[in-house]
Predict the structure of Coenzyme A biosynthesis bifunctional protein CoaBC.
Amino acid sequence: LRSCALPQDMAGLKVLVTAGPTQEAIDPVRFITNHSSGKMGYSIARICMLRGADVTLVTGRTALEPPMFVDTIHVISALDMFRAVTSNSQGKDIIIKAAAVADYRPAQVSEEKVKKSDSELALSLERTDDILKYLGEHKAPGQFLCGFSMETEHMVENSRKKLVNKHLDMIVANNLKEEGAGFAGNTNAVTFITPDTQTELGIMDKEDVAMCLLDEILKRIR
Ligand code: CTP
Ligand code: CA
């Protein structure tokens, strides 16, 4: 019902959202991942759609239903996400990267199940591409780029570094150690950081965080 009351203030805007974790295979039965539930990104995609935007969602594996009226692309690894995002970023007015992308993947993926032995096992990991950094370096004029940042310490400082290094217009910082924030729950406590502003929100529902985030972005692109 609430959705019926939403203003259509994003009509005509093309938005790309990423959500969820990536999975990096070790062998056919195992992978490396993180605790991302996808809820924040899915909420953003849904609210963009309800406010009239044309939305593409690139998502890692989650337990969530894809939002209605959103063009949803399912991916597994960071490499898949890189390909899906870079081939869908052209012509987008706003890109919001809420996904928790693995920074490292196993350097070799075993074709057969790795069998245990009595000795220690070391996994060699290699870096994945930084998708957001790539987008920042190849940004079209007028495109608004928003990242997310998960930290357990020095949240604002570290997030500001990401804003600058990745050429972002905004970064949404989360402190994982804060009550009511982070990956799994339905609430989040975030700080919006731009080159010249910093806005701290209290604990709120992820859909309300999405509403506030989109209000902040619209103020800056219009
Ligand atoms: N990101 C990305 N591609 C990666 C890693 C991160 O696009 N390979 C994006 C995330 O989607 C997020 C932002 O970069 O929007 C910040 O992610 P985060 O993990 O907080 O920061 P990193 O830059 O990866 O640095 P670190 O993990 O060392 O804090
Ligand atoms: Ca990271």
Remarks:
- The chain has one domain: 2-105+124-221.
- The domain at 2-105+124-221 is CATH 3.40.50.10300 (Rossmann fold).
- The mean pLDDT is 95.
